[in-house]
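Agenda item 2: zinc ion complex prediction
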Amino acid sequence: MTDTDKRPAGAAELRRAVLDHFAQKLDKYLPESGDAGPWKLGEMELALLDDMNEVACGVIEARIGADPNRIVEKPKCPKCGLALGGVKRNAATHKQTLFGPIRYSRTYGTCQACGLAFSPSGEVFRLRQGLL
Ligand SMILES: [Zn+2]
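Presented output:
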């Protein structure tokens, strides 16, 4: 777990990285030039399943990374508005998704009144309902 002043990457930069990653995967099946290799349909289906799941995880991670509320200086409780205590900024975490595991970082803290831990970015992104 890290706790640094690292700022979120820009959405354009993250989008470019996702597109580059997708283009690398696409080259295996449909290169701009040259031979695409001797793919059999069943083999291509299985390879595409893995590759597209990997690309989908990258899209989710990029979407989270582009969220300006992912890392905030003074997060507040979404229920009562009080400043969260014990705040960790840029804390690394992971989640299991339909496409596979994703890794990202975010701010989180605990509300003294509610006694619950909140991630401000989780409230905005709604990757999963509830607490992140
Ligand atoms: Zn609260």
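Discussion summary: The chain has one domain: 1-132.
Owner for follow-up: CH.
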